[in-house]
Amino acid sequence: MRFVIATSLCILLASAPVSRAEGDKPDFSPAERLLFMTPQLQSLQPPTLLRYTFSKTGSLEDAFADSVTVALSAKTDGSCCDAKGAFLSGARKLQVPEVPAAEGNPVILYFLEHEVREMKRLTGGSENHFRKRLRMAIYQGAEVRDATMRYQGRVVKGKEIVFSPFLDDPNRPRYEKFAKKNYRFLLSTAVPGGVYGIRTQIQGEGLTAKPLLVEELLIDGAQAPAR
Known about the structure:
Layout: H1 8-14, H2 30-36, E1 48-57, E2 64-74, E3 80-87, H3 107-123, H4 127-141, E4 143-151, E5 154-163, E6 182-187, E7 195-203, E8 211-219
Antiparallel strand pairs: 1-2, 1-8, 2-3, 4-5, 5-6, 6-7, 7-8
Helix pairs in contact: 1-4, 3-4
């Protein structure tokens, strides 16, 4: 991973998969390469501001809508970009570090760190445990497929990455209500910063049940994809 970011989530996700035999060369899954090793900011001209909407719905807690931004400024050589994020506001605000010489879009890591902290808040579990489950799901269990989406009124092509990190968690009985949480990332080179949207969902029990919890981040100009 080519981000420079001082969070334990980044360090954990960037580390080599623990399942490799000792002495093997590092390998990365297609999902890892798309999410963390793609120079999504390379074509942007600083200064620029990436704007996203963030929404939370579902029967578990009160709904809200907020915003996320990533401000991009020129590096010392004039190229893109140093990044400074603002993730939500007020009491919900997540303190995120600046990312000098960013090549990938740090909004992905910001969102995942938010997810880790929310899982801890909702379940009382360990942040490190949830970070590990996310990392291993992206490495081992993520499905990557072609996708189309609508951006600023036109159809654009990209990739969809989906995974459910907690289904096979040995600790699942401790937070069964949240174990079916799934993650969906939509990426496209046709949108600034490469990240079209990110969505997490916990479905309620029963075929007709409404979602227990949905959180969704979408770049400005995106049309929310079909569920």
